[in-house]
Amino acid sequence: QDISRVKKRLCENMFFDTEKKLVVFAGCHVVPSAGLFESQYRDFVRGVFNCFREIEEVQLLVKMHPCDFNFQIYKEIALEAGLHNIAVVKNTDKWDLLLSCDLLITYLSMMSYEAIILDRPVICLQNLSKFGIGILSEDLWRLKESKAAVCINSFSELKGAVHDVLYNEGFVKKLRESRKGYVEAYLNNLGNASAYVKEGIIELMGRK
Predict the structure, then answer these.
(1) Are 30 and 68 in contact (CB under 8 A)?
(2) Using CA atoms, how far apart are residues 39 and 62, in angstroms rounded to an integer?
(3) What share of the chain is helix, strand, coil (3-state, %, to 5)?
(4) Distance, CA of 59 to CA of 16 (rounded, Å)
(5) Whole-angstrom distance, CA of residue 21 vs CA of residue 39
(6) Where are the strands (E) in 39-79, listed by range?
(7) Rg (CA), the chain
(8) pTM, full prediction
(9) How many CB atoms are located within 10 Å of the residue 5 CB?
(10) How high is the pLDDT of residue 35?
(11) I need a labelling partner for 19 at 20 to 30 A (CA). Which of 2, 139, 148, 167 fits?
(12) Is the model's pLDDT at 130 over the cut of 90?
């Protein structure tokens, strides 16, 4: 399908403006046994939402984790933050979300890698130890080192990072080149089959 049609359909379903920037926030799964409690996650979501309270021209679409059933968390914090350009979804097709978005924000979701392959900008929230999710995994380290994603350490950096990704043309260009390099580097040594996949992905990324 034509990407513009995918975005148009998605925005109409969310009552969003197709002409405005669309940011997808991939939520986490609250797992007390793994050290992530609901109170901590509320503070985490609050940090993200408060950033978008100051960026009124951007629309925020929250993609709930498949194992997350607490829609109320997002509703309550959105009201608290005074957000209006926001929608929360759980079962919406993730590929439609990634194709339509101008930016993906996540802690460490598989959607990060899928977004990069689709040539979409990604901001990764890292080292947020006070929220119980401060482990810098090997995968996130690779993303950070390759600069294929923008990795930030605090919510005070988030507004500036969002602005750069959406509006700073020089920054956008460098980030796109890094995404391409990341795909080339990490699919390069996985055999002939992955080489064909890599070539197809790079070709698609070059057409944008």
Answers:
(1) yes
(2) 18
(3) 55, 15, 30
(4) 7
(5) 30
(6) 58-63
(7) 17
(8) 0.84
(9) 11
(10) 52
(11) 148
(12) no
d(CA 116, CA 112): 6
How far apart are the C-alpha atoms of 139 and 113, rounded to whole Å? 10
The answer to whether the beta carbons of residues 151 and 126 sit under 8 Å apart is yes
Tokens encoding 103:
């930016």
Cα 163 from Cα 78, distance rounded (Å): 20
What is the Cα–Cα distance from 12 to 23, expressed in whole angstroms? 15
Q: How far is residue 193's CA from residue 178's CA, in Å, rounded to a whole number?
A: 23
Kindly state the DSSP code that residue 102 receives in the 8-state scheme. Answer: S
What is the maximal distance between C-alpha atoms in the chain?
Answer: 52
The Cα–Cα gap between 139 and 141 comes to 5
Work out the average pLDDT over 108-127. 85
The residues that bridge with 26 in the sheet, in sequence order, are: 63, 106
Which pLDDT belongs to residue 117? 87
Distance CA 20, CA 8 (A): 11
Q: Which amino acid is at 183?
A: V
Residue 135 CA to residue 151 CA, distance in Å, equals: 13
Q: Give the DSSP H/E element, type plus range, for residue 169.
A: helix 169-186
41/52 Cα distance (integer angstroms) = 17
Structure tokens at 197: 């996949």
| Both structure tokens of 113 | 């890698």
Closest CA to 18 of 87, 100, 96: 100
